[in-house]
Amino acid sequence: MAQVSSTSNEQSSTAKSITLKISRYNPEHDESSQFMEFNVKYEKWTTVLEAILDVKKHFDHSVAVRYSCRQATCGSCGMIINGKPRLACFTKISELDSDVVTVEPMNNFPVIRDLAVKFEKLFDSHQKIKPYLIRDDTELVSDEKEFLQTPEEVEQYIQFANCIKCGLCNSACPTMATDSSFVGPQALAQAYRYVADSRDKGKDSRLKIIDDSHGIWRCHFAGSCSQVCPKGVDPAMGIQLLRGYMLGFRS
Amino acid sequence: MRESTIMKIHYGTALAAVALVAVHILMRLTQNFAESLEYESVLANYKFIPYAIMLELILILLAVHGFNGLRVILIELKQGRIYEKAVSYGCLAAMIGLIAYGSRTIIMTNMGLV
Ligand code: HEM
Ligand code: SF4
Ligand code: FES
Q: What is the CATH number of the domain that holds A23?
C-alpha cells in the first residue's frame, strides 16, 4: 500500500531509519488486513510505540493503536512486533536489529481496528477466577491491623502479582488459537497468584472454576506464555503448580 | 465426570501402559520376530491366561487413553455445546466399541473358538 517518508527527527544527525509496516484492518468494511509502509527515523531510544505515534502525527492519523502509560505499566499496547507478541512501549526499535519493523494486532483477540483488539474475553476470564482475596474476616474489623506474611509467604506468589493484563501470554498461547473457550494463561496465572497467597481462603472455589473441560487441563506445556511476558511472570509455571494442587502433590 | 478426574485417568493409563507395554515387548523378545508371528505361537500366547489378561489390560488402557486424547483434540479444535456433547459421547462409544471388539478376539482365542 502507501509508501511515505518521514520528516520527524530531521534535525538529528545520528538518526537512522527503518520501514515500519503497519497492519491496517477495519472489520466493518475490509475483507482482510493489508500492510501500509512508512519510512520512520529513529534514535537509539525510540520505541515502536513512538514510531507508530510518529506515523499518526505526520502521515496518517487514522492508524488505530491503544496505549496509555508508555512505561510497561498499563498493559494497553500489546501487539505482534516482527512476529513476536511484545509491548510497543517497551520495545526499542534498535533492539530489534532489523531494517523492517512489522506491527500487527495480537493473535487470538478479535480486532477492533488496525492494532487495537477487544479485551472483553480476557477480562471476563480474569474475573471468573475471582482475582481478589477470599476470606470471611477483613482487616478493617479484625483486632489485628494487617494480615501479616513472612517474606517466604510473599515469595510464593509475588512474581504473579506483577501481571498487567496486557494479554501477550494469551496471544502467544497455541491452545488459545483454536479453543475459543479456553480460560487462558493470564487467568490461570492469576488463579495461582491468589491460591498461593497465604492470606487467601478461596482455594477450593478457584480450583473448581478452572477444573473445566476448557480450563487448566487444556494447557499442553508449550510455554510460549512465559517466553513473551514482559513483566517476568511465568504463567506456565503457575499452571503446573496449580496442577500440583489438583493432582494432590501440593496442599 | 470432573475434568481433573478424567485427566488423572489419562495420565494414569499412560503410565500403566508404559509398564505393561514394556513387559509385552520383553515377552516378544523371547522369540525371534518371525517366529512370534506364527499362527500356533500367537494362539499359544492368547491361551496363556496371565499374558492374555495383560493384553486385555493394555487394550483397555490404550483405548481409554487414546479416545480421551482424541476427545481433547476435538474439543480444542471446535467449540459448541452440541458438538462437544457429540464428541464426548462419540469417543466414549468408540472406546467401548474397540474394547468390546478386542476383548472378543482375546476371549474367543483363549477359549479355543478359532
Ligand atoms: C504408553 C506411552 C504413552 C504415554 C506415556 C502417553 C502420555 C500422554 C500424555 C502425558 C498426554 C497428555 C499430553 C498433554 O496434555 O499435552 C497424552 C495425550 C494423548 N495421548 Fe498419549 N501416551 C502414550 C501412548 C499413547 C498411545 C499409544 C496413544 C494412541 C492410542 C495415545 C494417544 C494420545 C492422544 C490422542 C493424546 C491427546 C493429545 C494431546 O493431549 O496432546 N497416547 N499422552
Ligand atoms: S502474565 Fe505477563 S504476558 Fe500475561 S497478561 Fe500478565 S503481564 Fe501480560
Ligand atoms: S502504553 Fe502502557 S504498557 Fe505500553
A: 3.10.20.30
Query: Which residues neighbour A41 within 8 Å (Cβ) at sequence distance 6 or greater?
Result: A6, A8, A9, A10, A12, A15, A16, A17
Which of A28, A16, A21, A103 is closest to A66 using CA atoms? A103
Cα A185 to middle of ligand 2, angstroms: 8
Q: For residue A22, what pLDDT is reported?
A: 98
Dump pLDDT digits (tens) for B7-58: 999 999 999 999 999 999 999 888 888 888 899 999 999 999 999 999 999 9
pLDDT at A9: 47
Domain of residue A87: give its range: 16-117
Where do the domains of chain B lie, and which CATH numbers do they carry? 3-110 (1.20.1300)
Provide ipTM, 2 decimals. Answer: 0.90
Of A72, A94, A117, the domain-final residue: A117
| pTM (2 d.p.) | 0.91
Q: Which of residues 19-58 of A touch B (CB under 8 A)?
A: none
Express as a percent the part of chain B with pLDDT over 70.
Answer: 100
Question: How is residue B30 annotated by DSSP?
Answer: T
Q: Which ranges of A14-119 would DSSP assign to H, the alpha helix?
A: 48-58, 93-96
Residues A126 and A80 in one domain: no
Residues of chain A with pLDDT under 50: 1-2, 6-10
Ligand 3 atom with least separation from CA of A69: 2
Q: How far is CA A3 from CA A7, A21, A80, in A?
A: 13, 10, 21
Place of cell 483477540: A109
